[in-house]
Amino acid sequence: MLNTIKFAPMFLKNNTLLFSALTLFALAFASCETDLDANAPYKETAVVYGLLDFNQTRQYVRVHKTFQNGTGNAYDYARITDSLYFKDITFKLINMNTGNAVVMQKDNSIPMKPGVFANDSNFLYYTDAPLDKFAEYELNILNNETGTTFGGNTTLVDSVNWRNPSRTLQIPFEVKSNQYYTVSWETARFAYMYDLVIRMYYTDY
Hints:
Layout: H1 14-30, E1 46-50, E2 59-65, H2 74-78, E3 89-95, E4 101-103, E5 105-107, E6 124-127, E7 136-143, E8 149-155, E9 161-164, E10 184-186
Antiparallel strand pairs: 1-2, 2-6, 3-4, 3-7, 5-6, 7-8, 9-10
């Protein structure tokens, strides 16, 4: 693909060019500031990570909050546990088809790997309630301290039905140049992207 950029040459009179240069020079000195406040007014925001899989017996969802470093170093604030998690929330997983709601339980048993963020705690929310693969679910999160509610809706991705080749098929390395193998599967409900991985196992003598 060839990318092109079109432009038109512009010519200015000498006095116009001089005036423009003087104006830019004056603005550069007038607007020179050494103090820059990069922080906007703080807004309470929840960040939610999770994968709802009806094939699993337990669902885990991570909920934490954004933080503002004020005048300090952002890395220092990231190492403070209270900067990452809400202190008191009620997290409900609601089946939109039936209206049934499940309260997610708080868990801190899975350790977090060391890194930039505080790892002395790793708060997750879980449920062992079975999921209906045909239902739409709402994630409803209430901050009990401020009364702020966060939420979102999602459907569940169905399982992929593999068609060809069979899982027991063995493909020899001596493949003829005109010999092809077909890979096929049935489209899963609510799945829009697929990734095919081919692994080759061999014994070297």
